Amino acid sequence: MITALLSVAVQEFISQNIDANISKLALQKNPFPEIPWVEILTQISAKSKAKEKLPTWYAHEKIIYPSKISVEQTSSEKTALYKSNLISGKNLIDLTGGFGVDDYYFSKKINQVFHCELNKELSEIVKHNFEILNAKNITCLQGDSFETLKKLNQKFDWIYIDPSRRSNTKGKVFMLKDCLPNVPELLEDYFQFSDKILIKTAPILDITSGLNELQNVKTIHIVAINNEVKELLWEIEKNHEDSITIKTINFNKEKEEKFDFILNQEIENKNYTLPKKYIYEPNSAILKSGAFELVSNHFKLEKLHQHSHLYTSDEIIDFPGRVFKIENYFEYNKNEMKEFLVNTKANITTRNFPETVENIRKKWRISDGGNTYTFFTTDMNNCKTVLICAKI
Hints:
Helix content is about 30%, strand content about 25%. By secondary structure, the chain is an alpha/beta fold. A nine-stranded mixed sheet has the order 3-2-1-4-7-9-8-10-11.
């Protein structure tokens, strides 16, 4: 099938229809009857998805794509590049190779990379693509990854694992023990083949739950793009029993926002105040880390409330998150809302507030958008408060 899809006419047709409506296109007659129509549609759909997420793949001719969902689930080039900077050495084995984006970037930092993939068709696609991408130091191995480990029977500088979060019996899963492979169960076996293991997990995985399932965790990376957490990365080192470092990073259009700390370094913060001139909302990676009091201490900011996770100051500072100037704030009640927000247009965020954004919009007839930003929250006196702000 790969050979048929690589014909000049088929590749031109795919490129010409990148922006086409797939549902409408599917109703048309297949111009290449020797190839199943669904295969061509899959290429168009997946390549379209790769345009922003995988520009290197998109830019090369004769790249073959798996299903659209495989492209959706793979690492972006930005997160793959970040991971590649975490590893070094002579060799790495990826036990859950998938579409191979991570391995392509690993291959730029390490001498030899082994790409293991259970799915035969996907393994063949990836092997073909690595040839197109001139990634000559990656070896594709098809089959069960643990059996491959035993067959190779050698020591690796790194093992990389991105466990499948789809179960035939449970559907979509998030606990590591429910993923494939079952890393917690196999961890001691993996240590026979490498002292260092890097694991990628779903962003929804609770950090405490992950720590309960894993051992010898050295560093946890929380990686966000444009304020959306995309990956949790767990660096595990054999016999490591010391402190655990949390590294947060948010890639946005302007800069990289970083904030690191040692787990369990959290302090008791009693530094609360009423809103001042500026308000600060941490990025999603920091919020995922749970370092709410450390943020206050590190940046010398005061919090509005123990559970609101909004910070304030009279002097503006450089901060890893969104920064706003407070134009007005008032107690949340009918009279104040009628005076300032009813029938207006505003962006709404809730933090430690009993009502949802949807309910607030409906109740007070506030349309979405515009340059006004509002925070519905709770202040230090446990008073429900509304902040009307302008974004800095």
